[in-house]
Amino acid sequence: MSQNIIFANDLKQELSAVSAAKAYDRVFVLCDENTRRHCLPLVGNIGCIAQALPVTITAGDDSKNIDSALHIWRALAANGATRHSLLINIGGGMVCDIGGFAAATFKRGIDFINLPTTLLGMVDAAAGGKTGINLDGLKNEVGCFQTPQKTIISTDFLKTLPPQEMLSGYAEMIKHSLLDNTNHWSKILDTDNLNCESKNLTEMIRLSIDVKSRFADADPHEKGIRKALNLGHTIGHAIETWSHCHGKPMPHGYCVAYGTVGALYISCAETAFPTDRMRQTVRFISEVYSRPSITCNDYDELLQLMSHDKKNIGNDIIFTLLADIGKPEINRHVGEELIREALDFIREG
User: Fold this and answer.
1) At the N or C end, where does the chain have fewer CB atoms within 10 A?
2) What distance in Å separates the CA atoms of residue 63 and residue 161, rounded to the nearest whole number?
3) Looking at the predicted structure, is the pLDDT value of residue 88 above 70?
4) Reported pTM
5) Arithmetic mean of pLDDT over the chain
């Protein structure tokens, strides 16, 4: 599953090349309400996008559902989309996920291009070929693997983001650094990278995408080592789902950060992950992301949500852990008592 990821120095040139590369009978652009207002104007007069038919969905992860997918499919069908049409997804992780899913399933698959506009979209959803929607409050319960024709990365879009969105994406970059090496990890524990004007940011994004692409290319359908990319997500997805169910939604990246704290705690107990590196990472996450608003009264519900995780084997809750930086341990069964300890650690530090 080779990833065609382009870092655009000239966004107009890259988008103009889309029309030249292949003759599409119709082009559609998918945005959410926010990216249509703030991001589409940056590219709306360029080549294929200027002539494209817009499709808009409601912003927010709560809209990543079957109703939104139906809306996209119906918009494509009503406007004459064929198997020779193209869908361009302009938005964050939610838009790239659901847009890729809609394209991969409409008429058994049409071409799509991802133009991620958030840091999270750039380093996570836009690479790796995963598409999907949530179902009954469970994250990414329905989806498929489908690689976009290309993913175009332009840091110009990051200037439209509020700080919380930058931090959400940066949590996935922390995870990627832990899966890579100590040099990458040391660089990521530097908040200067969060400045969209920073010269280091593009290079850090490139490093992060390289890590994700390396695991995805080695294991396209997540049967083995690609599961390493789930570091922090077992607890993280449970906290994220819990937050939406209780009407106080937390950003995906924040929840991954909290889940990473829990995974590192468990790793120290189970795989002898170095305590000093755990504490250094946890200190950084605590200072940047604070702590989630969960209490010990929420543990039973969180454990129930973890029991629905796609990585589980039978009734066992399965984690990705680390023996050290760059040494992931996949398919690790973790008992309920240790998970509860990890939740205590996330809350109390």
Assistant:
1) C
2) 19
3) yes
4) 0.89
5) 92
Helix axes 336-348, 252-270, angle to 10 degrees: 120
Instruction: Classify the phi-psi angles of 312: left when phi > 0, otherwise alpha if psi is within -120 to 50, otherwise beta.
Output: beta
Residue 57 has pLDDT above 70, yes or no: yes
Q: How far is CA 311 from the centre of its chain?
A: 17
- Tokens 């499919």 -> residue: 73
Asked whether the predicted pLDDT for residue 11 surpasses 50, the reply is: yes
Q: How far is CA 295 from CA 101, 211, 247, 283, 308, in A?
A: 35, 34, 16, 20, 21
> Rounded to whole angstroms, what are the CA distances from 69 to 83, 135, 243?
17, 12, 23
Which residue pairs, CB below 8 angstroms and at least 24 apart, start in 190-199?
191/288, 194/163, 194/166, 194/167, 194/170, 196/155, 196/158, 196/159, 196/161, 196/166
pLDDT in tens, 193-205: 777 777 788 889 9
The answer to whether 148 and 223 are in contact (CB under 8 A) is no
Q: Whose structure tokens read 């498929």?
A: 144
Maximum C-alpha span of the chain: 59
Distance (Å, whole) CA 257 – CA 235 = 10
Gap between the Cα atoms of 141 and 138, Å rounded: 6
Sign of the four-CA dihedral 73, 221, 184, 171:
positive
* CA atoms of 213 and 128, how far apart (whole Å): 6
Residue 1 has a pLDDT of 46
- When pLDDT is cut at 50, 70 and 90, the band that residue 2 belongs to is low
Token readout for 323 is 């023996």
